[in-house]
Amino acid sequence: MEHRDINFRSRKWVRPEDLNANGTLFGGSLLRWIDEEATIYAILQLGNGRVVTKYMSEINFVSSAKQGDLIEMGLQAVSFGTTSLTMRAEVRNMISRSSILSIEQIVFVSLGPDGRPMAHGYSEATYARDRIPEPGTLG
């Protein structure tokens, strides 16, 4: 499942502590890495350090990775709502380019200082750094 608009920016080296009882990459570790990467992407796209994961669609584990493999995670902004950003994710083996996992929808919501959904005002993805939140606004 190759998607040209996905940017593969984050890479991980599968280490012994990332393995499950079968000696392959533990799905929980992979999902933690994806959620962290998606959160960073949402912060940058929405220009707000206060974002939360609202929804994650079906997670399709296509293949696994083993110790020593290099994997890369890719994200693509699919749509912007008034307070939300929907993206898709794919993880693949860096060497073989074979898909390890795909998630068609991950939805993040932008929150205001009161913890309630807040309009962000964006309708398309940016690749510039102009939406990085001001210092002190990430927490």
Features:
1 helix, elongated, Thiol Ester Dehydrase, Chain A, 139 residues, alpha+beta
Structure characterization notes:
- The chain is α+β, with helices and mostly antiparallel strands and 139 residues long.
- The protein has a single domain, classed as Hotdog Thioesterase (Thiol Ester Dehydrase, Chain A), CATH 3.10.129.
- Helices cover 14% and strands 35% of the residues.
- It has one helix at residues 27-46, and strands at residues 7-13, 51-56, 59-61, 70-80, 84-93, 99-110.
- Strands 1, 2, 3, 4, 5 and 6 form a six-stranded antiparallel β-sheet that branches.
- Strand 4 (70-80) and strand 5 form a beta hairpin.
- The mean pLDDT is 91.
**Helical coverage, percent range:** 10-25%
Mean pLDDT: 91
Q: Tally of extended strands?
A: 6
Mind telling me the C-alpha Rg? Answer: 16 Å
CATH superfamily, called what? Hotdog Thioesterase
Distance between the termini: 36 Å
Structural class, judged by helices and strands? alpha+beta
How many structurally independent domains? 1
Shape: elongated
**Which fold does the CATH topology refer to?**
Thiol Ester Dehydrase, Chain A
SSE inventory with pairings:
Blueprint (H helix, E strand, L loop, with lengths): L6 E7 L13 H20 L4 E6 L2 E3 L8 E11 L3 E10 L5 E12 L29
Antiparallel strand pairs: 1-4, 2-6, 3-6, 4-5, 5-6
